[in-house]
Amino acid sequence: MHYTLSTFIMPLPLVAAWPAVMEAVNLENLQKRQGSIPVVPPPRFTTDRDNCGSHGKCTVFNAQDQLVNVASGSGHEWQAPGTNDKRGQCPGLNAAANHAFLPRNGIATIQQTIDGLGAAYSMSTDLSLALAAISIAISGDPVAGKWSIGGAFPATLGLLGQPSGIVGTHNRYEGDASIVRGDAYMHGGSVGFFEMHRWERLYGLAASKGGLTHDKVASQAYYTAQYSIQNNPYYFSNPFSGLVAPDAHNFVVHFMSNRSEENKGGILNGEVLKSFFSVTGEPGSFVHTPGHERIPNNWYKRPTSQPMNTIDTNVDTVINNQMYPGIIRFGGNTGTVNSFVGVDTGNLAGGVFNGGDLLQGNNLACFFLQATQAGLADSASPLLQPVGQILSFLNSNLGPQINALSCPQLSDFNNDLFNQFPGASYKAQGQ
Ligand code: HEM
Ligand SMILES: *[C@@H]1O[C@H](CO)[C@@H](O)[C@H](O)[C@H]1NC(C)=O
Predict the structure, then answer these.
(1) Is 178 in the pocket of ligand 1 (CB under 6 A)?
(2) Which ranges carry the Heme haloperoxidase family profile domain (predicted)?
(3) Are 264 and 58 in contact (CB under 8 A)?
(4) C-alpha angle 126/127/133, rounded to 5°?
(5) 349 in helix, strand or coil?
(6) Which of ligand 2's atoms lies nearest the C-alpha of 271?
(7) Could you tell me which residues are beta bridge partners of residue 147?
(8) C-alpha of residue 21 to centroid of ligand 2, in Å
(9) Angle of helix 196-207 relative to helix 214-231, nearest 10 degrees?
(10) Strand positions, DSSP E, 100-230
């Protein structure tokens, strides 16, 4: 299977000038609240992607297949997490655990992740496997094969120390420029701070006509990247975590939209968004309750026959980046705001992908799967198993997907290029 970028870009009609969604968002109100608020330019073009994304529109609807039954008696009733249950910065995972699609304690195996996220969201086996294996490699317990959706948990005998869980993965999995959460450096090292100006903007997009779409969330991805540049002297975007944050913008639309017979691609309105993000109240007086993310009643996921795959999310990120150049960027501020310097991914990856090539065909998906290794030298420190063992764990889990995509061999990450960025060595504290 080989995709070229033009396959995705060309057939999308270039709809005339995009309606000014920004008007739904009151800039002045935002400014009062926090920081230097970016101005988002009009997109270079718009697309007709439905909420299942450009790679595979959702063409079927089957209520029985797609209803995610969380009613009383279903076994998937919502329950608030208990004091020892792990919850973190990912709303999709928190909601899945609150409904027992993942173990309620927030610690899961790869198989539990595949089964649970398939049932709750129609995430493909490949994508669940990749995301869970990466979690285990950089923040979990490779011996027991478990990872935590929140903070640290006790590891199997033989590991020194405790696996950090995904909240302890700053710049390796978790990163700056998230859709709602603030940058760790701006919040004393917390990676889970709910930044209201981001939320208010996102909610405004969802509450506007037609609900939240890929094109609208692309404007949020531009906004969040630009916000970091303008406000965080330590903003840093690592090759892998720097893709996770823009991809997670698309996850909202791909996974949280409500599908129906009339709208097979799905609609994501403000109410559904509030439920998934654990927000109550109204614009100007929103309240976020950490850990109470919830799958709404009467909510329909994408069809199980058209699940969301590893390629899908990266394809939409490439398109978003073409609409608003600058969403995909690797590098950082150099200690002051507005000082962003990019690193050439050609240098970064031993010459296999250069900046331009990265956006061609499957390359971004390949890079996504392969760049995790860049985080390993750092993460493997005294904590976990020797780097070699973790690498072979990752290879055995991700290798088949990398092979299936005919990815070019990526070797030779040169992390020295990051020394100029103070944010690259900044250690966050977790949630
Ligand atoms: C095994 C599966 C998954 C893993 C390992 C995972 C991991 C993560 C991580 C590490 C982050 C932090 C990234 C950042 O700094 O922005 C994150 C954020 C996020 N994830 Fe997930 N995730 C998974 C599945 C999902 C699903 C199924 C959804 C949607 C239903 C989702 C939606 C999001 C969103 C919206 C964010 C951004 C949160 C914010 O900024 O407030 N994720 N996830
Ligand atoms: C999803 O859409 C269906 C069909 O329009 C509707 O009946 C249902 O209430 C919606 N669910 C949510 C959570 O909005």
Answers:
(1) yes
(2) 74-315
(3) yes
(4) 90
(5) strand
(6) 14
(7) 108
(8) 24
(9) 160
(10) 107-109, 146-148
* CB of 323 closer than 8 Å to CB of 46: yes
- Closest residue by Cα to residue 338 from 428, 223, 235: 235
Q: Is the CB of 300 under 6 A from ligand 2?
A: yes
d(CA 338, CA 334): 9
Residue type, 254: H
Residue 332 DSSP label: E
Token duo for residue 94: 């928190």
Q: Which helix (H) or strand (E) holds 244?
A: helix 241-256
Identify the bridge partners of residue 181 per DSSP, sorted by sequence position: 194
CA distance 309 to 128: 9
Helix, strand, coil percentages for the chain (3-state, nearest 5): 40, 5, 50
Closest CA to 86 of 171, 175, 146: 146
Query: Which residue lies with its CA nearest to atom 20 of ligand 1?
Result: 90
d(CA 400, CA 390): 16
Paired with 175 in beta bridges are none
Give mean pLDDT in consecutive 10-residue pieces for the chain, a chain of 431 residues. 29 32 44 78 96 86 98 97 97 98 98 98 96 92 92 79 89 94 96 96 98 98 98 93 94 98 97 98 97 98 94 90 94 96 80 79 87 60 58 87 86 76 87 67
Mention every residue, 6+ apart, whose C-beta is less than 8 A from residue 107. Answer: 86, 146, 147, 148, 149, 153
Report phi then psi at 8, rounded to 5: -90, -35
